[in-house]
Amino acid sequence: MSTNPFSLSKVKNIIAISSCKGGVGKSTVASALAMELSQRGLKTGLLDADIYGPSLPSLFQLQDAKVQSNEFKLLTPIEFKGLKLMSFGFLLGDAPAVMRGPIVTRYIQQLLFQTDWGELDFLILDMPPGTGDVQLTITQSVKLTGAVIVTTHHSLSLVDTARGILMFEKVNVPILGVIENMAYFQAPDTGKKYYLFGEQKAGALSSRFGVKTLVEIPITEQFSGDMRAFQGNTYIKKAADELLQVLEQPQTSQMDLKDAGYRDGHVVLVMSDGRELTAKAFDLRAKCACALCVSEVTGKTLIDIKKIPADINPQEILPLGNYAVGITWSDGHSSGIYPYSMFS
Question: In this structure, which of 197, 208, 266, 318 has its CB flanked by the most CB atoms within 10 Å?
Fold first, then answer.
């Protein structure tokens, strides 16, 4: 199947909404964010990139929607209140998607390039969970403006959050921010907050991963899964505000990393302005804040520092935008993310 690059030629920004782990409310957040941008007068499209478990037909109550093709043999998106929608679920109906990777790749390319998106300010991609074929196909096929990671504060979600950040950075897709969904429940009668996945301070994800936390969304009845009744939400409005602000910022800064290496037991970062930031390799490994090294419930350090080799050293240092580095250590550990603030 040939692709049609002109179907995306008038799309200004392509934003991937990813979770890497299912069950964190990514599709609902992606749909609500797309609705918010559209309601602000921004021309917006929403692509459901989950072939095996498409969500858009159910979220927008459009199970009976039929996709047509135009005179150019391009698929015509379903429009809902000005928002352009496309999902494999519109083509498949209720039948299960039983297919192998190469076929899935072709369908994703069809939805991307054979859809008449027209002129858009934003195309929001609701990515499937994981870091597999679909993610690689999309990142290799189109130039993404950036990615937003949706997560909860649950330890398993945070492990996958780190993996997602590392995946996108390895294919040169900048991380625009993190949205923490289901962060807490706020009792309507007392206003007291209950942290179901363990209490944490605001900005904890930012300090851990080095990326901006766009918003913390509590468990709320408004996110019941029906976008037809969506009329804006305080938290989604904040997420949209923060996202637009990030996109307006210059893509380069004085904190850009020029080179990275290892010297005399230290990890050395050479910045674009000539400064060197250093940290002891042993200390970095011992201070790893990933969910494998720190308990999300108690905050207790899980790693046994006595078992860290005295000569621990980095095997690979991966720049993560202009905010952090990912390090694969000689002991095999590779899920840690180390913000520049850990260096001096």
Answer: 208
> How is domain 5-248 classified at the CATH fold level?
Rossmann fold (3.40.50)
Q: Please state which CATH class domain 257-342 belongs to.
A: alpha beta
Query: Which sequence spans correspond to the domains of the chain?
Result: 5-248, 257-342
- pLDDT attached to residue 31: 94
Distance linking the first and last C-alpha atoms of the chain? 52
Please write the tens of the pLDDT for every residue from 211-261.
888 998 888 766 666 777 777 789 999 999 999 999 998 655 546 889 999
pLDDT at 19 over 50: yes
